[in-house]
Write a structure and sequence with these properties.
The protein is α/β, with parallel strands linked by helices. The strands form four sheets. Strands 1, 2, 3, 4, 5, 13, 14, 15 and 16 form a nine-stranded mixed β-sheet that branches. A three-stranded parallel β-sheet has the order 6-9-10. A two-stranded antiparallel ribbon has the order 7-8. Helix 5 runs parallel beside helix 6. It is globular.
Length: about 450
């Protein structure tokens, strides 16, 4: 992406996850070069410099959507938002980076799946992206029971994936990860029960992170019983939305208070014709909903505008925490000198009404249809280039870049390494780590290691 050499954002309130301040932001060659008050034009000359007036607005780090499925082959179809249209829609909503899933076929090579997704994405992406690689399969035994009972509609999808099962699977994963001192990131948190398990684990010291998605924060599973089949089918996803209408508020409260950590969308869209593959059998409805364009606005509306979280926590859960967990920070997720100039000028007082008629995604349905959102992205900047402004795109396919990520992010692994060290010391000197334990072979507390070469040591054991 050919970024302009200079960009100056004047007078906005720069919001990071830890503080906010009114400041100018100077961008050169796609990178933030300076922050401060009344910054002079570089070199004292305005040649090649574009100035954006952000007075009265917020200047935020670009959003990072931790969970998408663009042009994903699934259940006999392929998600309709490809890497081009999907990433354009992301930019329109204030998201400047997505992390998609490379999913191999059962028994397929992980490396080949990664290379396949790169070949699909690289020529098309309009924003930066990275990849998760998944290993997944599931059984259809619950689903068969529902069909045998004569339940064939979209409500069967939720009934055969009960909330208790989601919670139990979450607990099992946390228990196994904790036993081997491994951090755990749980995607797609949809229910109160699963969220409670994660919250309890975090408060018990477990290194675990939970990711609710825009859908679970902005709507609920009562739609599965809608009389219009296509309406119900467009909400089908796995795990499903939960029919308890208090779920979104509950999850938002946990997100605001750091019991949950990041936000994605599981953006995996299928149009009405594709959904109709399961008209008489809910197990054949392609799973997936929209969200990549609306995530930021939905979270601002349900989180910040409602008073559940402040602007700094909003930045944390939509961008910074993801950057830290996935080892992108501080290149991404922060407005600071040296960071990529992924920036959104945000108007917290403006409103917009979400609708499939006006959104930029390829899908013909929007699960947030009619929702009025306070908080609107006015300008989206990707690596120093204005790519979306006042409803107009200035971006082409392939402008985005693949961002490689190193393993073992310090944000996660500092605690893991320390715990490994402590356990190693405990195994090496078990009694020394417990100074009050009495040596069963002595009448006094164990204070120094026993020297096995000491003379007559055998007699001390008798």
């Amino acid at each position: 992406m050919a970024a302009p050499s200079r960009l100056l954002i004047r007078g906005g309130r720069v919001v990071n996850d830890d503080f906010s301040e009114v400041a100018d932001v100077l961008v050169e060659d796609g990178v933030v070069r300076a922050l401060g008050h009344d910054l002079p034009p570089p070199g004292g000359a305005p040649v090649g410099l574009r100035v954006l007036d952000a007075a009265g607005k917020l200047v935020l780090p670009g959003g990072i959507d931790t969970h998408t499925h663009m042009e994903f082959p699934f259940m006999g179809s392929r998600s309709i938002d490809d890497f081009h249209q999907g990433t354009k829609a992301a930019l329109a909503g204030g998201t400047t980076m997505i992390i998609d899933f490379a999913i191999p076929q059962k028994g397929g090579s992980l490396i080949e799946a990664f290379e396949t997704w790169r070949s699909w994405a690289d020529p098309k992406v309009c924003c930066d992206y990275s990849l998760h690689v998944a290993v997944t399969w599931w059984s259809d035994q619950g689903a068969k029971k529902m069909l045998a009972l004569g339940i064939t509609g979209p409500e069967g999808h939720e009934l055969c994936r009960p909330e208790a099962v989601e919670a139990e699977a979450t607990l099992r994963a946390i228990t196994i990860a904790s036993a081997v001192n491994c951090p755990l990131y749980i995607v797609h948190v949809m229910s109160k029960s699963a969220a409670k398990v994660i919250a309890d684990a975090r408060r018990d010291g477990k290194v675990v992170y939970g990711e609710p998605i825009a859908a679970s924060l902005g709507t609920d599973g009562t739609h599965y019983w809608n009389k219009e089949w296509h309406h119900a089918a467009h909400h089908v996803m796995g795990p499903p939305l939960r029919p308890d209408p208090s779920t979104p508020d509950f999850l938002m409260n946990l997100l605001a208070n750091d019991d949950l950590t990041t936000t994605g969308t599981d953006n995996c869209t299928f149009n009405t014709c594709q959904k109709a593959l399961g008209k008489d059998d809910f197990t054949k409805i392609p799973n997936g909903v929209n969200g990549v364009e609306d995530r930021m606005s939905v979270i601002w509306e349900k989180g910040v505008h409602s008073g559940k979280m402040d602007e700094n926590r909003f930045v944390a859960v939509t961008s910074t925490n993801a950057a830290k967990i996935f080892n992108l920070y501080p290149r991404k997720g922060r407005i600071a000198v040296g960071s990529d100039a992924d920036i959104v000028i945000w108007d917290p007082k403006a409103t917009r009404t979400i609708s499939a008629k006006t959104h930029h995604q390829a899908v013909n349905f929007n699960i947030f249809e009619g929702m009025v959102c306070h908080g609107v992205p006015l300008v989206t900047i990707s690596r120093g280039k204005v790519v979306y402004e006042a409803g107009v795109f200035s971006v082409t396919a392939g402008d985005g870049k693949f961002i490689p990520r190193k393993p073992f992010a310090e944000y996660i692994y500092k605690r893991i390494k320390q715990r490994d060290q402590v356990k190693s010391e405990e195994r090496r000197l078990p009694f020394l780590s417990q100074p009050n334990v009495v040596n069963p072979w002595r009448s006094r507390p164990y204070s120094t290691p026993w020297d096995p070469l000491e003379k007559n040591h055998r007699s001390r054991l008798l």
